[in-house]
Amino acid sequence: MNPYLNPYVAKPNRYQNNANYKIRPVSVESRPVTINKQQYNFNKKIATGQFSSVYAAYRRSDNKPVAIKIIPAATKHSTEAAKMMHFFLNEIQMAKRLATTSNHIIQIYDFDFDQRTGLSFIIMELGQQDLEKYLSQRNILTPDERKSIWRQLVNIAITLYNHRIMHLNISPENLVLFPGNLVKLGDFGMARKFQQSRTKSLGNPVYLAPELNSPYHKPTVTAKADIWSFGAILYRMTYMVPPHHNSPFFRPPLNQRSTNDPNLLNILQHTLVIDPNARPDALWLATHPYTKTS
């Protein structure tokens, strides 16, 4: 039995006029949990993020398998609580909007907020495993396997581009494989519209663009940050390790030779560059020979 993240729940305090909060452990694996009038049984934790955990579960009314993300929205600090609620609402809004136009976005079935425990729930479709687990189980990808996944990533890039959205947290952990090796993107909590700047991302630093990380921090972030992340994932699928953060970033690991595919190398050379303005956009990825040729 694994208690969840010990969310803080407000309780009266006769000495400080309700200013303090008391930690109340909440277990989701020991009993059915009611979410928006539906009961769910939790099986196991399948992912953990900085502010959330995801469980495999099933809906008791029809035994439908689902994934349930839990976000603690009650904390000791009101600013932190506001941030958690923003991530919760932002993910729902962005994902539901994009899923209507692309089969490569994880669908959200339902959501709810429990005022008693301070927990937010997002009910989603359940995949087989994330891309990082898939890659970690293999020593190498065949060129066909790599290109099949890459083309789906480009489809995601075009979907984001068409909706003028920056995801800002694209990584193999947030890409989920479904039957038939269908790839879908999730975790839209940090996503922003193009015109909204963001100075910091809390995603996986291995796949974050340099402008989102020190020492290359810039005050304004653009959609080119996601282009870096797509290139970094292609690097991961090519050399089976994440890219290093020493220029030139596209060069292979020390113990490996460079890819013999000039088109693939060209994408790495153009996406993994420090200057965001020097990176291409999603349309360039979609029309690139590596993406277009079989």
From TrEMBL:
Entry keyword set: ATP-binding, Kinase, Nucleotide-binding, Serine/threonine-protein kinase, Transferase
GO biological process, one term: chromosome segregation
A GO CC term attached to the entry: kinetochore
Organism superkingdom: Eukaryota
Gene Ontology terms for molecular function: ATP binding; protein serine/threonine kinase activity; protein serine/threonine/tyrosine kinase activity
Residue stretches making up the Protein kinase domain: 40-291
Signal peptide: none
Matching SUPFAM superfamilies: Protein kinase-like (PK-like)
Keyword Cytoplasm: no
Pfam families on file: Pkinase
This protein's name: Protein kinase domain-containing protein
